[in-house]
Every structure is written in C-alpha cells, then in structure tokens.
Amino acid sequence: xxxxxxxxxxxxxxxxxxxxxxxxxxxxxxxxxxxxxxxxxxxxxxxxxxxxxxxxxxxxxxxxxxxxxxxxxxxxxxxxxxxxxxxxxxxxxxxxxxxxxxxxxxxxxxxxxxxxxxxxxxxxxxxxxxxxxxxxxxxxxxxxxxxxxxxxxxxxxxxxxxxxxxxxxxxxxxx
Length: 175
Known about the structure:
Blueprint: H1 6-22, H2 27-52, H3 56-61, H4 66-74, E1 76-83, E2 86-91, H5 109-119, H6 125-128, H7 138-154, E3 160-161
Antiparallel strand pairs: 1-2, 1-3
Helix pairs in contact: 1-2, 1-7, 2-4, 2-7
C-alpha cells in the first residue's frame, strides 16, 4: 500500500477551494486555505515521487521542503509525444512551467514555490502559527495545489525515476 495518496492530496485541495468559495473573512481562514493548499502540494509531490519509484525513506528525508520535492520530481521522466506519433521519455521539468495564475503574479508552479522559499513565511509552521505572516494570496496557493495534483494524475502511468542508460530529452539541454 502506498505511503502517499494523490487522491487525498486532491481532497485537501478541494477542501481549500470550499473555504475559498465561502469567502475569506479572517487571517485564520486565509492561513487555513494556505495550509491545506500547501499540504496538498506536498502530498501530491510525494505521491508522484513514490509512484516514480523513489524510496519512501528518500521522500521522507525532504520533510516539508516543497522546493526540494519539486527538484526531485524534475529528475524523473515522463512519456511525452515529441513529434506526431512518436513518444519519448523527457525530463519531468515541465511541471515547473505549469501556469497557476495569469494575473499580476504571473505564477507558475516552479516560480511560486521558489518565490515562497525566498520571501514567504516558512511552511508549515510559519503558515499555521507565525507572528509575521507573508505569503501570496490563498487563491493562488489553492490553484497551485489543483495544478500539481492534475499534473500528477496526467502523468501517473508514465512517471519514473530516470535510469542512467535512458535516452532522455532534456538531459544536458540536448536532443
């Protein structure tokens, strides 16, 4: 039985969206949506890595490090149609460029995770309990959670840890 469940991550995301739909009227509600969303992202990334074949001990070692988990996913490969009718394994780095928001944030999954690593309250404790609270808007985090889970489900059957003898598009910027 898997340790991490992408469907559970989707449930957390759906719950965050339910709170958003009700309307956020307090900092506590904002923190709740952010926490649920980021927890969803964390569990989605961990589920993706587990499905790819990364040992659970290595996944757990990342703890709550979303940037590190994303980096690990980018080291995996997925099957992609590179030309009409021809599929090939490519690095899973495309997850970083999935657009989350086209508003003033112009955020992608990779950009938002890296922005949070540098400029936001530290997840999870800084989101839940911190005295100084800084993060991008809760709806952006909820949309990111949805996009990560969706990407994971789209590539669920083809994601794998890259093997050293594999011919992969995206290695060394070539192919």
